[in-house]
Specification:
The chain is α+β, with helices and mostly antiparallel strands and 95 residues long. It has one domain. It is 42% helix and 27% strand. It has three helices and five strands. The protein has a three-stranded antiparallel sheet with strand order 2-3-4, with helices on one face. It has a two-stranded antiparallel sheet with strand order 1-5. A hairpin with a 2-residue loop joins strand 2 and strand 3 (21-26). The longest helix is centred in the last third of the chain and has 17 residues, at 68-84. The two termini are 15 Å apart.
């Protein structure tokens, strides 16, 4: 996975913020997923930045006091886990 890719939320996923954290429901599998505060911030940044991971990283760097390399790694791991769970699709920027 690379920062030049774009993330798109799966059509089957319903997301709702509850007490500052995101709760996700995959309508296909009927599985619920809970995101902590950081995961919720990433989800919201993906939504706000139309899934462009480079811009998501920039937004998160402004929000959190962390080294860019650490945040980049954590972001890519998080998105990879979302993709493995079928909650998002990852595309090349040109698609």
């Amino acid at each position: 996975m690379k920062l030049t890719q774009q993330v798109k939320f799966a059509d089957s996923v319903f997301a709702q913020e509850v007490d500052g954290e995101m709760v996700l429901l995959d309508m296909n599998s009927e599985n619920y997923f809970g995101l902590d505060e950081v995961g919720s911030s990433i989800w919201q940044a993906i939504e706000a930045e139309e899934g462009m991971l480079e811009r998501v990283l920039e937004v998160l760097l402004e929000e959190y006091d962390v080294e860019e390399s650490v945040l980049k790694h954590d972001l890519l791991v998080f998105v990879d886990k979302l993709a493995e769970s079928g909650l998002v699709e990852v595309r090349n920027e040109a698609e």
